[in-house]
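Narrative of activities, Objective 1.

The group set out to show that a structural description can be obtained from nothing but a protein's sequence at a throughput compatible with the screening campaign. Below is one input-output pair from the validation batch, recorded exactly as produced.
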Amino acid sequence: MKRFPDFATIIPVIFAILAGTLASCSDTAQRKSEPAIKTDNAQPQNESQEKADLTQRKTEPAEKIEGKWAGTLKISSGQVLRVEFEISRGEDGALAALLNSPDQGAWGVHVDKTTFENNNLRLEVKSIQGIYQGKLREDGLAIEGQWIQGDSLPLELKRAQ
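Output recorded for this entry:
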């Protein structure tokens, strides 16, 4: 198994790269206000499977997970980084999300796969080899989980404005 560098040293570098990439784009400001892109990349095996998948996605209460979620990562160096996820549901019922790291100037980072089943949320960000896994609390106000990017750090997300 390939071992990644220490989380405390790699996340600032990754977010700095992302921030520089986003800042260099002429449409960065526009990108902040664009709706999330469909990210549910699972391909159904057949037509009946596709209908079953779509039915399952539409029956999952969208209001439970849609919206802006924010939390803070406490890095081993003592640094604290704010993390935000903006989760939405497209017309086809598929979930989509964007990642923001305000402290590092990274906005609208594409989340490649967004799944929410049985109150469990999973967000995969391939560009930074990061995964968030958490469970929505019964009161629906917070998600208790882990940010995994080489190492695993606790990350509680709370509904944000």
